[in-house]
Amino acid sequence: MERADDEHEMVRLDIAFHDAVFASARHQRLVDAWEGIRCQVHLFLLTRIGRNTEGYLGRIPREHRELVTALRVRDTDSALELFAAHRRHAVDVVTGNGPS
User: Fold this and answer.
1) Who's near 90: CB < 8 A, 6+ residues apart?
2) Sign of the four-CA dihedral 32, 35, 40, 42
3) Mean pLDDT of the residues in the chain
4) pTM across the whole model
5) For the chain, is the Cβ count within 10 Å smaller at the N or the C terminus?
6) Cβ atoms of 93 and 51 closer than 8 Å
7) pLDDT of residue 98
8) How far apart are CA 40 and CA 77, in angstroms?
């Protein structure tokens, strides 16, 4: 992700990251739920970069590294907090309710 050349490549890698996280859970209902919303998340990310790309290439790899660290050590509370902040920031960019 840190070598992504542009925002569209980052969106592709962003989706691939989430694919990998859900697959690694080895929980078929969770994977099925992700697959049910995957195209909506992809559209959301495209909307996000259409709205504002400032900081996207730098921020997403960092946020994903932090999430992976929490998941690897099985720190559920930190992982949930990081994911909530990750999601909240993206929603704020799309809705115009927060910093870019």
Assistant:
1) 44, 45, 48
2) positive
3) 92
4) 0.85
5) C
6) yes
7) 62
8) 26
